[in-house]
Design goal:
Layout lengths: L12 H17 L3 H8 L3 H8 L7 H11 L3 H37 L10 H18 L24 H8 L12 H32 L49 E9 L2 E8 L4 E7 L6 E6 L2 E6 L6 E2 L3 E2 L9 E4 L5 E3 L1 E2 L18
Antiparallel strand pairs: 1-2, 1-10, 2-3, 3-6, 3-7, 4-5, 4-8, 8-9
Helix pairs in contact: 1-4, 1-5, 2-3, 4-5
């Protein structure tokens, strides 16, 4: 069985070469990972991550390994610098990609055509609104179903009012016909009310039919598709992700699968030489603070959603806090660091960077 696992395929070639060089040094020395950890002062878990390409070691760990194995520190330092720049570029590309995915999802939720530039979508919306307005001004009677008129079989006749026939037999000079009796007037009034109620009912039925055929426009033109509904909070999580929202509070982002490709860096700052960053996972709706290039004892603190978390750097100069829930804009979440010398500093929102542009160094961790 081989001693080392295969390196991740997505690693940058320079990072892959550097990790392979570290493995060769350990193999030539004949030391186990535990022995390397004891000799360099860095934990066995950290060295397993370094040698398997999951984490870029700090420069001090690389120099310690060179001294332990008898290698030239200058050569390893050069390879480490190239690997660190490649690692930072990959992380920035991941951040830009996640932002692009967020914009595409927002446009899709608004019903815009994601294949067209954003500037064309409002124009298309205005054209659709103009077309709908023109259609609403067209005569609606063409599409409205006509309610059949009831046959009036209850109209009064001479048989109902004998006095009318008597008046017709008299000459024009005769007196005016006598008024209907009170009973006849009540009968006629009742029939009129019934006819009015029937007409109102027919109008309501016709209106309901129009709304069912095409709600909102009154025409038979096909209605515009509704925007896609927002994904349910109970939908299945991506593979490897084990929590979301409040269920992640106080937990390790790496153990819960919220880091790596699911995380971006919305803000970054420094406290002395230490780098302080906020890492945000859109899948888990959580954030955590990360400190790197720090001295032992330097700490980083993050507060959001009524929760706070603090982490202290160990001998490898890196650490990250447990997760806190974030329900608003992650760019507004700040992490602050304090060095053992008392120097303080907080993170600030990272400005948007075009894809392919050189990114500032973001430390050695990827969580």
């Amino acid at each position: 069985m081989p001693r080392w696992k295969a390196l991740p395929e997505e690693l940058d070639p320079q990072v892959r070469e550097f990790a392979g060089q570290l493995r060769r040094l350990v193999d030539r020395s004949g030391l186990s990972v535990a022995a390397v950890a004891d000799a360099t002062g860095y934990s066995k878990t950290s060295w397993e991550r370094y040698l398997n390409g999951r984490l870029l070691p700090p420069l001090r760990a690389v120099v310690a390994l060179a001294e332990t194995t008898g290698a030239q520190p200058a050569h390893l330092t050069t390879l480490w610098e190239l690997a660190e720049r490649a690692w930072s570029r990959a992380e920035m590309r991941q951040d830009v990609t996640m932002e692009a995915i967020s914009v595409a999802q927002a446009r899709a939720a608004l019903g815009w055509d994601t294949d067209q530039p954003a500037a064309e979508s409002p124009a298309k919306g205005a054209k659709f609104a103009k077309k709908s307005a023109a259609a609403s001004e067209a005569p609606r009677t063409a599409a409205m179903p006509q309610a059949s008129q009831p046959r009036r079989t209850d109209l009064p006749s001479a048989a109902d009012f004998p006095e009318w026939a008597a008046a017709a037999d008299r000459s024009p000079a005769a007196a005016a016909p006598a008024a209907p009796s009170p009973a006849a007037r009540r009968s006629r009034r009742g029939r009129t009310v019934m006819f009015a109620v029937g007409a109102v009912g027919a109008a309501l039925v016709a209106g309901a039919a129009v709304l069912l055929l095409n709600p909102g426009t009154g025409t038979t033109e096909k209605a515009a598709p509704r925007p896609a509904a927002a994904p349910s909070a109970k939908q299945a999580l991506p593979a490897g992700v084990r929590c979301t929202g409040a269920g992640c509070v106080g937990k390790d982002p790496e153990d819960m699968g919220c880091g790596g490709q699911h995380a971006i860096t919305p803000s970054r700052g420094t406290a002395g030489r230490a780098v302080i960053e906020v890492r945000y996972s859109k899948v888990c709706h959580t954030a955590w603070a990360r400190i790197s290039r720090a001295a032992k004892g330097d700490q980083a603190t993050l507060s959001a959603g009524g929760h706070s978390a603090t982490a202290r750097a160990e001998r490898d100069g890196a650490a990250y806090t447990p997760m806190v829930e974030v329900t608003g804009d992650p760019a507004k979440v700040a992490a602050c660091g304090t060095t053992v010398a008392g120097v303080k500093g907080c993170s600030r929102p990272v400005p948007a960077t075009p894809a392919g542009a050189p990114a500032p160094s973001a430390g050695s961790a990827v969580r």
